Amino acid sequence: MLLDTASLYFRAYFGVPDSVRAPDGTPVNAVRGLLDFIARLLQDHHPDDLVACMDADWRPQWRVDLIPTYKAHRVAEEAPEGSAEADVEEIPDTLSPQVPVIEDVLDALGIARVGAAGFEADDIIGTLATRAAGPVDIVTGDRDLYQLVDDRRGVRVLYPLKGVGTLQTTDEAWLREKYGVDGAGYADLALLRGDPSDGLPGVPGVGEKTAAKLLASFGDLAGIMAAVDDPAAKLTPTQRKRLSEARPYLDAAPKVVRVARDVTLPAFDPAVPKEPADPATLEELATRWGLGGSLQRVLAALPA
User: What is the pTM of this model?
Assistant: First the structure.
């Protein structure tokens, strides 16, 4: 089971009232909400392995170099030009202090927390899903990861509809019914359609339904662009013109939209811990931050 950790703690933050606070009054709604998510996932799905995948870089420069608008609207503070520092993401004031607490609690529990410099959590998930020998459940509120769905290899996305008690199980049959594509086709659909939440403009005039029809007709993005160059291909003059004019974007977008699958990762133990890795630190964190029942539910859900 691979957790898109930031996606889940953002959902926890907005789903749990900020009246949930530590003894000193600090909001811990994202911390406790994420712990409740993890407890429910362990209880309901009993994964052998569990990895909290992290954004070491939420807006990698190599993606920005290809499409400068990538996540640009989410930048709160730009890094100085030529600096090795990353742009600062816009995060609610009461959420950002909770992220280090989340990291400390996961480490004390012994739940693997994995990131890699220059890559997003999506890329960590893509790499681990590709390497996995057995079935993989990806838990995320980000539809971008639908591109990893692969029935043959048992890779599916569990998409939270309400907390994590109600999860939409996304497999290839669901994708074909909803979008008309399989997992491999979803990235092409997304880049043609565009995604304002990630700053991806898409092809003007090509929405989701048109993108799905083009992919049904020509197979993939390469097939569509081959059709643009083939006068005999069944494209309307408007479609041919729009796709041709969008060629610079369509040349760059695949590398931006498709998750990396070959990231070099640090060594880690993915096994779900049977007991906390650092009980003393965990007890200190529980007391300081008032983690109460949320932490107890995680501990109760660990395999005996």
Answer: 0.94
Q: How many residues does the chain have?
A: 304
CB–CB of 28/289 below 8 Å? yes
Query: 55 exposed, middle or buried (CB, 10 Å; 0-12, 13-18, 19+)?
Result: buried
CB 172 within 8 A of CB 34: no
Query: What number of other Cβ atoms are within 10 A of residue 142's Cβ?
Result: 20
- Report yes or no: 190 and 172 within 8 Å, Cβ to Cβ: no
Q: Check pLDDT > 80 for residue 195.
A: yes
Distance of CA 296 to the CA centre of its chain: 27
First to last CA, the chain: 18
Quote the radius of gyration of the chain (alpha carbons, Å). 21
Q: Which amino acid, one-letter code, is at 62?
A: W
Distances (CA, A) of 302 to 102, 198, 279, 287, 292: 18, 36, 14, 20, 16
pLDDT tens sequence across 134-183? 899 999 999 999 999 999 999 999 999 987 779 999 999 999 999 999 99
